[in-house]
Design goal:
The protein has five helices and nine strands, in the order βαβαββββαβααββ. The protein has about 160 residues and is an alpha+beta fold. The chain folds into two domains: about 55 residues, 3-Layer(aba) Sandwich (Rossmann fold), CATH 3.40.50; about 70 residues, Arc Repressor Mutant, subunit A, CATH 1.10.10. A four-stranded antiparallel sheet has the order 3-4-5-6, with helices on one face. A three-stranded antiparallel sheet has the order 7-9-8. Strand 3 and strand 4 form a beta hairpin.
Length: about 160
């Protein structure tokens, strides 16, 4: 699936502190230097996979989101700003949840269509565009939030600090 995170493990002979720091800065989940035993490699790989799986499970069960100045309650299908509450439709809630789960990342259009509409046909794609426009309208109250089209790929919900 396009929404999976791929764990990164550096296997290298570079053991200097600055090399390790650079590896982690580049996105490594773990960093192992030569020489190493096969047992250590397997244990580290299992740990990375376990953490990635736990993280994915936690995201899947998350129901309350802070999006800029908004609070989004997925279970109640409510988007709240201050004392104002906006009731969302089930499709608006599903789409906003997927965008929140991929905050500041591109959400693939076909993945969202298949998950929410169970089909990625042209007509459902047009329907999703309408829902994106509605979400933009709701979120425009916070100037730090952008919901942008990524041409040919999907959408990206960006929250600037």
């Amino acid at each position: 699936e396009a929404d999976k995170k791929i764990p990164i493990l550096f296997l290298t002979a570079k053991a200097m502190q600055e090399d390790k720091l650079k590896g982690f800065a580049l996105g490594a989940d773990d960093y192992i230097t030569k020489p190493f035993s096969m047992e250590e490699l397997l244990v580290r790989m299992k740990a990375i996979i376990r953490r990635a799986t736990e993280s994915k499970t936690m995201t899947a069960h998350k129901t309350l989101y802070e999006v800029g100045k908004f609070t989004f309650d997925y279970n109640r299908q409510i988007l709240k700003l201050g004392g104002e509450e906006q009731k969302l439709t089930s499709k608006e809630s599903e789409l906003l949840k997927m965008l929140c789960d991929h905050l500041n990342e591109v959400l693939d259009r076909s993945v969202a269509l298949k998950k929410i509409w169970h089909d990625d046909s042209y007509f459902n794609a047009r329907s999703m565009d309408v829902y994106v426009t509605k979400l933009r309208k709701y979120l425009k109250e916070d100037p730090n939030i952008e919901l942008i089209n990524v041409h040919g790929v999907g959408f990206k919900l960006i929250v600037n600090d």
